[in-house]
Amino acid sequence: MRSRDDDAAVDVDADVGADAAVDGADGRNARFLALTRAGKPAWDSRGVSSESVTLCAAVQALAANAEAQGGGELEGVDYAGRALGCASTSTMIYVASSAEGESVGVLRKKLKYVEDVMTSCVTNAALVGALGKNSRFDVRRAMAAATLADERLHELATRGLRRDTAYVFDTYRTVGMSHEVRRSATRAMGDALRLVTKPFAGVAFGIGDSRLVTYVKPRGHRPQTISARDVMVLMNYARATSRSAESKKEGEDEGDATHAESFGRVCLPEFNPDGFMHAYVSYIEAKSGDTEAREGDEEKNDAVASSSTSRERVGVCFLTASAEALEECRAARDALEKRLNADDTLTTIARAARRQLRVSDVPEDVLGRYQVEHDEPLLHFVYNRPARQQHVSSAFASSVSDDRSVETITRAYAMMYENMTELDGTVDATTKPPMEHSAQRVRYERRKRDSVLACVGGDFEIYLTFKPSATVTVAVAMCNRLCVWLRVSEPELFLENLV
Amino acid sequence: MSTKKRTLLKVIILGDSGVGKTSLMSQYVNNKFSKQYKATIGADFMTKEITVDDTVVTLQIWDTAGQERFQSLGVSFYRGADCVMCVYDVNSAKSFESLENWRNEFLVQASPSDPDKFPIVVVGNKIDVEEGKESKRVISEKKAKSWCTSKGGLMHFECSAKEDINVTAAFEAVARFAVESEDTEPDVFLPDVVQIDAGPKAQSGGCC
């Protein structure tokens, strides 16, 4: 059930402290909080403080009140322009607050990932098992014993949930490259994984933004794929790991950072929420010393995903059930690097991983006339394939590539996505009645700084951001043409044979 | 940078309606006392940070409703409590007799792992009331201590929220008691590594 502040069966004096706690120092940024059903904080995106304790008590009071009144779960509270989304499990309550106009539904969706990462740090067994036996079980102590728990949750809250479209569309992002190159990488990864005892998977990803290059699982293992949610948990883990490694390497020479590696425990909640596996995360580096010089001019014009390094590197992760497999993982990494360097494939992969798909990469005959004649109205697009559990997104146009604009557009996608998935039949900004059996649904929303067009087909979704000057006719025409081109380009855009 | 250990303690205040639970909490946290009686609806809470030895303790203090009609909601806050403060009015025999029920109700609802060792502190409030003026003290300190002893040696304090007598000492004893109990908690439980090969439909075989 949803509750308003005036429903709360707690004294107003107590709420005053809670309000201040929700607003936080800046009064704007989203805040994420995880607490036990006992009202004790497990994690706060602003750091656990006495303020968190007050907020947790308020949330517990509201949750208890909601249960007492209607027997239902507390979903959210609207208070003074801020939305509080709440999601409860049998042992935990997750809370998100925002003053950015996000709906309770959008906030609750984000909380699903906070729960995922929390589980990936301490497992469901710790949360449900330990808290079930002892409600005084201190989740914070469990997190302190977990690998990079705080970094992983912070990475999710500060970057992932604000800017990463993966968390909007529930599908992971991929690196575009030729089918042959990806196949070579997949085969090499499969061979490398054979060197690891009790393997679960080998994953290659772009360092800057954690888009997937490829992954393999041992033949015969079920399921054959890694679920999108687990991929996102893993990529979040890799990002947190690399950030931690980089910060530790500050002051050391750059060469050391190249070989940064970690070997820690991670739980993949969709595969098995009750146990850990070990994740080895490192990088493989192209040995072509003249790569930069050879292709420097071209590189200058590329939309580079990672600005942290000019090296041609790709992230790798080996997952294993063996706690003793560190040396084997190192050997697998070295073998993979050597193999992919033998024919310069690694250079090609690394360059692809650094490059993002740009609107200008779309061939002229696809968008040319519209893009040129209407002052380049298309700013960004996302092409989502739920059945593949993957999507591709373009680089943001320079006019909207700052963090704030990216976050604003990502929020717009999230709200649009919520609308599209909530409603049946045609969704249209006009007053036309819904067409219940329509195969395609379209929605166009004009906003102050941009306009968003969403189109949901039988097996795909596309979301486009246009300049506000773009007319509906132009937007729809460009969407249609882009859809055709993206469909044809799928072999290069997505990982194949994974479903 | 401080190296002090930090911990959170959830403290529940229980007792009959009108014994002064809210006044005790208000006096301790805000150093305020109101003569006006206002029944607590459901529950109220406040937080206060104190230091116990080398530990910074954040007390999350829950003041529950004493009136029976509001008690169903209060019970939901018992979960995860680290310590309980059972309050009675030294001038009310009934409030003292109710302590047994409050204690039992808590132990049933909260189901602590070791009920016999769960930190419970008994507080007799309103010792400031002058005999013959408003009422007469009916529960002697000796009688209260005797009862506490019979329940396994519960800690006992006599206080006045109005005059701020012994209030801080009672709450600090609560905190210390809970911190000491916390230290005896077993180490954090984290499960083992998942058995990949034992997963559903898992088969052995080579890589792709």
TrEMBL record, chain A:
Ranges for domain FUZ/MON1/HPS1 third Longin: 378-487
One Pfam entry name: Fuz_longin_2
Domain FUZ/MON1/HPS1 first Longin per the UniProt entry, residue ranges: 32-144
Superkingdom of this protein's organism: Eukaryota
Domain FUZ/MON1/HPS1 second Longin: 209-328
Any one biological process term the GO annotation gives: vesicle-mediated transport
Alphabetical list of InterPro entries matching this protein: FUZ/MON1/HPS1_longin_1, FUZ/MON1/HPS1_longin_2, FUZ/MON1/HPS1_longin_3, Mon1
Annotated function: Plays an important role in membrane trafficking through the secretory apparatus.
Similarity remark: Belongs to the MON1/SAND family.
Record protein name field: Vacuolar fusion protein MON1 homolog
Organism field: Ostreococcus tauri (Marine green alga)
TrEMBL record, chain B:
Species assigned in the record: Ostreococcus tauri
Chief location bin: membrane
UniProt key word GTP-binding: yes
Membrane topology type: Lipid-anchor
Name the record gives this protein: Apospory-associated protein
Superkingdom, natural source: Eukaryota
Alphabetical list of Pfam families matching this protein: Ras
Matching NCBIfam families: small_GTP
Subcellular localization(s) per the UniProt record: Endomembrane system
GTP-binding among keywords: yes
Family of the protein in this entry: Belongs to the small GTPase superfamily. Rab family.
GO molecular function annotation: GTP binding; GTPase activity
Keyword vocabulary terms for this entry: GTP-binding, Lipoprotein, Nucleotide-binding, Prenylation
Cross-referenced SUPFAM superfamilies: P-loop containing nucleoside triphosphate hydrolases
GO cellular component, one term: endomembrane system
